[in-house]
Amino acid sequence: MIRLVTMRGRVQGVGFRAFVEFQATGLDLEGWVRNRRDGSVEALFSGPADAVEAMIALCRQGPSAAHVAALADEEAHPDQLRLRRAGERFSGLPTV
User: Fold this and answer.
1) How far apart are CA 14 and CA 27, in angstroms?
2) Annotated catalytic residue: which of 3, 17, 34, 84?
3) Active-site residue flag, 3
4) Nearest Cα residue to 52 out of 15, 83, 81
5) Are 65 and 11 in contact (CB under 8 A)?
6) Which end of the chain is less crowded, N or C, counting CB atoms within 10 A of the terminal residue's CB?
7) Residue 57 pLDDT
8) Sheet strands (E) in the chain
9) What is the mean pLDDT of residues 3-10?
10) Fold of the CATH domain 15-82
11) CB 82, CB 72: distance < 8 Å
12) What residues make up the catalytic site?
């Protein structure tokens, strides 16, 4: 299962990307996370459906300083995994 997830609200400047990277690594997911200039955080998760769904649930909550006002998720294409840094299973990417 591969899902593209976008979180909106107080999700930048609160450790959200580090939270996502830590949790996704713990769930043995592949993918990436990045800030967007519009103030949202975007992440791609790839792995077993139960692990991806658990990660999406964690994103709805976020780290303690965050407030997720909205979360959207959609199917993603495997080609989007190419955005990861070479040799990494899960990458924190630059802001777009």
Assistant:
1) 21
2) 17
3) no
4) 81
5) no
6) C
7) 98
8) 2-10, 30-35, 41-46, 67-75, 90-92
9) 98
10) Alpha-Beta Plaits (3.30.70)
11) no
12) 17, 35
Catalytic residue selected from 3, 34, 35, 84? 35
CA 51 to chain centre: 13
Strand order in the sheet with 2-10: 67-75, 2-10, 41-46, 30-35, 90-92
Residue 45 burial class via C-beta count within 10 angstroms: exposed 0-12, middle 13-18, buried 19 and up = buried
Please check whether residue 7 is in contact with residue 40, taking contact to mean a CB–CB distance below 8 angstroms: yes
Structure tokens at 72: 């959207």
Smallest CA-to-CA distance from 38 within 1, 61, 11 is with: 11
Structure tokens belonging to residue 73: 């998720």
35 is catalytic: yes
Contact 42, 32 (CB under 8 A): no
First-to-last alpha carbon distance for the chain, in angstroms, is: 24
Token pair of 53 as six digits: 């769904």
Please, how many CA atoms are within 13 Å of residue 21, restricted to the half-sphere of its CB? 15
